[in-house]
């Protein structure tokens, strides 16, 4: 190994370790800063030129994520999410129906919009409702987190790792959904069944509930415009319009308003996530250029990654070690050389997402729900989540892998 290769390997390891932990002890660096520092280090050692670094960043992914963030921000600020959540939950007149409503609403919204944002909206509503009707909030909060992960499997726009995979693989939106929507549906059913079993005391007796949710202030005109744009986006996605192009145009249209100050929308955009993606793209490209020869890339077959079950398990473990987006980018050089790259990408999308339900730390969505609950005075513990997350992850991963191995 050359000196540059050794330096690139060290940068890769330190960057991924920092992103996995979320910080560097003694420094005020977050994941975005760590990824940007890693990318800059790759340029500094000469692993990539500036032109190579620019080319390494997949701007389709960045653009898609930015466009969807604007759409979601507009839906949130206009009051659309809170209004929809209130309408759905107010029709839940028994604990089990409340569980079903929370799971279904969170899962369906997460299928088309970025799941992390859905958790930001749904978690406070769930805490408020369960407090008003004097029910245990924990099973419903777990349903919110796990349903957001399961539902987001269904489409390219469901979560950040799917957006990366959509851009890298070239799989069309309809083809992606046709392959993984059944897995998402099975996952949502599994969420309800497993929570019903684990928290059987919560659902043992039929109790008449009258949940009431404050719908807050709604900009009805802006809600209507956002709904029209979302319908247009769905049509465009399934019609084969490039998803990044459609999302950017849709987001830009929603900025044309006299009712909502643009600063309110901009505050909802997760800029650090965009920076983290850009940095990781550069880090992985630098490592790929300096460390991976064609023979090494071809060695993925020797690891047995052509086998769907082995690839699924490997991805799930990797995602829980280093988080899902870094895991997807780490696998990027190896997938095109496999026997069936399209199916392999779908396996990676499915496994990296469903693996997020394994522990409370498994996905950003889980942490958002836990933090929103804590801010409202409710503690969602690691153990409480794990009682549901362990069986849910094993069952959904097995079902999803079997579906892609035999049924697709």
Explain the overall architecture.
The protein is globular and about 70 Å long. It has helices at 3-21, 31-44, 50-56, 59-78, 80-89, 95-112, 115-132, 138-152, 160-169, 173-198, 200-203, 220-239, 243-254, 262-268, 271-291, 294-298, 308-322, 324-331, 341-354, 364-375, 382-407. The chain is mostly helical.
Structure at a glance:
With 408 residues, the protein is an all-alpha fold.
Q: What's the helix count?
A: 21
Intertermini distance: 41 Å
- Could you give the order of the helices and strands? HHHHHHHHHHHHHHHHHHHHH
Overall spatial form? globular
- What is the oligomeric state here? single chain
Task: Note the main attributes of this structure.
0% strand; globular; 408 residues; 74% helix; mainly alpha
SSE diagram, text form:
Blueprint: H1 3-21, H2 31-44, H3 50-56, H4 59-78, H5 80-89, H6 95-112, H7 115-132, H8 138-152, H9 160-169, H10 173-198, H11 200-203, H12 220-239, H13 243-254, H14 262-268, H15 271-291, H16 294-298, H17 308-322, H18 324-331, H19 341-354, H20 364-375, H21 382-407
Helix pairs in contact: 1-2, 1-15, 2-15, 3-15, 4-9, 4-12, 4-13, 4-14, 5-7, 6-7, 6-8, 6-10, 7-8, 7-20, 8-10, 8-20, 9-18, 9-19, 10-21, 12-13, 15-18, 17-18, 17-19, 17-21, 18-19, 19-21
